[in-house]
Amino acid sequence: MDPVALFTLQLLNALSLSALLFFIALGLTLIFGIMRVINFAHGAIYMLGAYVGVTTQTLTGSFALSLVLAPLAAALLGLAFERSALTRLYAREHSAFLLVTFGLALALTEAIRLAWGPDPRQAELPAALAGIVFVLDEPFPVYRLVLIGAGAAAALALWLLLHRTRLGLLMRAASQNAAMTAALGNDVAAVRAAVFALACGLAALGGALAAPLFTAYIGLGTSVIIDAFVIVMIGGMGSFVGTAVGSLLVGFAQTFGNFYFPELALGATYALMIAVLLLRPGGLFGREE
Amino acid sequence: MSSTMIGRRAALGAGVAVLAAPAVLRRARAQAGPLKLGVPTAITGTWAALGAQVVRTCRLWAKTVNAQGGLLGRQVEFLFEDTQGVPANCLRKAQEMVERDRVNILLGLMASSEALAVMPKLAEWNALFISSVNGAGSITAEHWVPNAVRANISGPMGARALALHLRDSPQTDYFCLSLDYAWGRSSVETFEGLLRGIGKRSIGSVFAPVGTRDYSTYIARIRQANPQALYIALTGDDGTAFLRQAAQFRLFERMPIVTETVDMLFTRPAGEAAIGLVGGSRYSFAYDIPANAAFVQRFRAEYNELPDTYDGEQWQALDVLMAAARRANSTETAALVAAMRDLELSSVKGPLRIRACDGQAEQQGFVVRVARKEGFPHPVPEVIRTYPAAEVTPACRSATFA
Amino acid sequence: MTPAAPRAVLAAIAVLAALGFVLPGYAVTLLTEAIILALFALSLDLLVGHARLVSFGHAGPWGFGAYVAAGLLLVLQLPLPVAALGAALATALVAVPVGWLCVRTTGVAFAMLSLAFAQLGYAVVFKWSAVTGGSDGLPGVPRGGGPLGLDWLATREGFHVLAALALAGAYLIARGFTVSPLGRVAAAVRENEARAQALGYDPRRTRLAVFVLSYGLAGLAGGLYAGFARYVSPELFFWTVSGHVLVMVILGGAGTLVGPMIGAMALFFLEHQLSGLTESWGLALGIVFILVVIFAPRGLMGWIEDALRRGRRASRADP
């Protein structure tokens, strides 16, 4: 293969992987930014998104509808969980949050297995997205270009939300200083609920987008959650820009690293995280806690 | 149970008695009741879909055998426990079955690592283990123990059948892709050795880390190496993810893809992407002999589904147990182990013989191709070649072919 | 914690040890495993509870200790107690450089650094198959007794007593550390790092001391586990193990030393019993976690203390 074509192909591969990682990491970082906690159930929510997406598509035949219903279902679940369980824990130590989201991850994974059974579920891409384009004479799936576009669109939409809306303003304020934001008469509880629901929706959207590549199966959540942790830590907990950069770094490191140094791939991401955290404990774009 | 022990127990008070009493009751029941078979398998976790095959086939077998009056006149009862495919859990559950429930026959272990964890304990437990799933070559080589038999086709045996088939194919330059763990590495190693044996070569191999979901960078690497054919040792979710992505990159149009094992579990979710895939097969519903046709029919009547790889393998393992019990006229461990030596029988995959030297069941090797077939909603494998046992079974206590 | 606690804890451990001679065999084996997990959770509580360093990589020292002990048992054929102690020392030794890097940070960064080191351990064990057996692990680890009648330690009852002794010893060490001058400094650093620093203490070095002790005890637990299971595999290093032991500590009540031991045993038996009862044990367990967090804010230990206090009050009120 022509080296320029190979490089271009790998560039696109890296971008599409980064886009997929971005959806799940973004939710984690949003939750951390405003609540200062790690959501262990995020991988299970991502998996739920894949299952709901596939089932929606199987029943209605519409891929587009699956991209609406999956995040909607997850956001509603997230909202219910935040209102019923998490809201009692904000005054307490972080470890409580850790245990409760660990519990949600366990229960949700098992609930999915009960509802859908142990066999993987899949649906085919609509014809319009299943095609290929030729990049320098090399076939490249249209759907991966769609993923790159979706990642970019999500980044833009989130940026607009954070910087052009009142909710975004409150989110940023609450992540700087929740007590002060509340003292100024703002409903921080509502902001938290909205953020948690939004984060769950983003993870589920990521799951629904990933399903055509990976199918929906038990264990989908476990496979991705550690990558998402790494991204959020490298980028800086709670930093939107950092998460985008972290997703790109990990996406590129995995795509090019696995190509040139496949033997080192298993430990490479962790080595990268160790290096970043030792040099900048708050992550590349984060504040030190 | 000695009276002094009961005396001591009484002295230690109510809490202990509560813990111990059910065990006494259970033990009393175990003497007279049905024959209990222990199945510590992966009911939840990443292997759950494979575990589900083992469980449903055991249930069907129990139903069938019990309707015919049981095994040696005793009703058969399976004890299922969830190990999640984790060796530590498997060890604990198996031990409890053996010591608490007086089980002496273990079946359906999922991961090879689970089997390897349990096997050194078998002598101490006076228990027998019949493998139906575990593929690692070492189970019937350096780690073999006399109380273990392998009814299923091992990883090296599957690779061998495939290599024999490829001997007649026009492609000579292969590239190998697998995940970076023992099964994948040993499969690729075996395959590369077999390629050399048939005058072909491997022009490169790559091992993706366990947990890899995005295969695009490996697909690019394969494209760059530009082999005439691709060998993959991937199964389950990994196999599905790779096949779907390979099809999206139109890799099949460039080169044929062959795989060590074809399971519907991973070809079915791959959908159209699996069509044309050729591979070894441990069991296929499409193998056309009367015994298998009867099994497939019974299975479909019960579950309204096709039996997959480990349904067939589990059924065959249970047939091995039945033949050994009849030969020994006993279900005691020592009698069964003795009866397993050079035991010959016929099951859903045709004739097999358990050889005495390492417990491996010598049996036919199969090569299948995934194709679209009338009457099935998804592409299914069809048997394209069978090889006699002598050609696909490695030498005694060996995982490789000289 | 009340000052009378240590004696009560040792008495409870003695009862656990004695149960090894009374219960049926399989129950003894279960209890032995629970004791080893209690030791594992106890070691993590030093970091999480006493230094408020929430480690998310405690599978690292656990797996490392297990592999070291497996090596000592397999290759050098050392007696079991020696192998377990060797595992503890080797793990503590490795914890010095690893800890030196990790304790530069606190909070989430610390959690992720400890995770990264454990995962690196996983990668090394996975890749270095010539020595570690790769993903197949090392089966058939012997449980060597040794001279001086130590052979008895290799039996089921003997091993059970050994595990109980190790737990008692580890508890005394951990408890001794928390009330020692260095332990008090660690507590001061936890509560207010700036003030402790102003008083002339080096927070980083203090944290390192806790780290090394915690890792050493986790290595001991891992070493015992290798002798217990007679099998080691890379899963011992995997992050889900770290998550699991962290749940044990939080469930039991971090910072109490006793709570995490109770949490470990409670979770172990709960999982074991539930998974025997229903396939959906994960669902039940998840719901239990959520309910415990909401209704027992200080973990099982806090709940037990409250119950005891209520009991005392009730008995006083009774004529």
UniProtKB/TrEMBL annotation, chain C:
InterPro entries per the UniProt record, alphabetical: ABC_transp_permease (IPR001851), LivM-like (IPR043428)
Key words, A-Z: Cell membrane, Membrane, Transmembrane, Transmembrane helix
Entry keyword Nucleotidyltransferase: no
Pfam families reported in the protein's UniProt record: BPD_transp_2 (PF02653)
Spans through the membrane: 61-78, 84-103, 110-130, 158-174, 208-233, 245-270, 282-304
Single GO term (MF): branched-chain amino acid transmembrane transporter activity
Protein topology in the membrane: Multi-pass membrane protein
Compartment(s): Cell membrane
Keyword Glycosyltransferase: no
One GO CC annotation: plasma membrane
Protein name according to UniProt: Branched-chain amino acid ABC transporter permease
Organism: Caldovatus sediminis
